[in-house]
Amino acid sequence: MTGEEIKRIIKNTKLDNTVFNADTSKLTSIKAGGKVLCYFVARKIEDMKKMVETCIENKIEFIVIGDGTNILFSDKYIDLVLIKLGSDFNYLKFMDGGKIIAGAAYNLLKFVIKAAVNGYDFSELSGIPGTIGGSVMGNSGSKYKGICDFIKEISYISKKGGNIREETVVLNENNFGYRHFYIPDLIVLTRIVLNAGRADKDDILKKIASRIKNKKLTQPVNSISSGCFFKNINGYSKSAGELIEKCGLMGFVYGGARVSDKHANFIENFDNASSEDIFILSKIVKNMVLDKFKIELEYEVKVVGF
Q1: How far is Cα 246 from Cα 237, in angstroms, rounded to an integer?
Q2: Last-in-domain residue among 172, 202, 232
Q3: By the number of CB atoms within 10 A of the CB, which of 8, 89, 198, 274 ranks highest?
Q4: Model confidence band, residue 228 (pLDDT cutoffs 50, 70, 90)
Q5: Residue 69: CB partners within 8 Å, gap ≥ 6?
Q6: Phi (first) and psi of residue 204, to 5 degrees
Q7: Do 79 and 95 belong together in one domain?
Q8: C-alpha distances in angstroms, 304 versus 24, 133, 214?
Q9: Same domain, 94 and 147
Q10: What's the rounded Cα separation, in Å, for the pair 292 and 243?
Q11: What is the mean pLDDT of the chain?
Q12: What domain range includes position 39?
């Protein structure tokens, strides 16, 4: 199917908030990448279902993105539909019994702060950019605890019996691990229900401030990047950043991309880098770590179109 045929199919849905030939460099924190066929913001769940169903029925490739903080698109044109959750998925509710309900599009930093003001401690997630939905999909957090440890249940769009519909499931330990989250029939995460114990508001806010201060001291928070590029190796004593640093790669430059000289697990777009610059630099890093330590680093950043 040609790109023009795909556009015609999408136009026939009569859905608003569609942009064709969208520039991915304007949709991601790394500020690099080429164009995709369509970018769609789903304000309502019924609009989301309609677009997902249209893509599946017509075998049109699509992915769901949050705030674009952990993704890298190639420089080439991709026949791909990007779906972003809109206003109906951007909410936060505090219920009785320590129950917290969040829409998948809600900002993670706002969630951490509002939870703290209400006496709930999610300080482990302090300073992590993006949406709460994106955080769940990668089980963001510290080395010891991820956001999924706090989740009671989730709601999501699935396709069962040939129908696009919303499902709700209780999470168990088999659904997640370090930087890992898996629900077999999940297409789009829409809603998260969390449980947390109460704590002193001022103590939580102090912990959040301390963690953010530490991140500013140890990570290049003001640079153009997509956050930590590689996953840490679960159960290994050294972090991915330490392995990269021991390869002598801090400050290493390829084109407009650079391994941060502040934290080696960050690849910065410091000089109008192309996605190709960033991707090739990531390959150099992977190859050098493999050669020196016989360890194959795994991307934490989602790479698309390479």
Answers
A1: 14
A2: 202
A3: 89
A4: very high
A5: 28, 29, 129, 130, 134, 226, 227
A6: -65, -45
A7: no
A8: 11, 19, 31
A9: yes
A10: 9
A11: 95
A12: 3-88
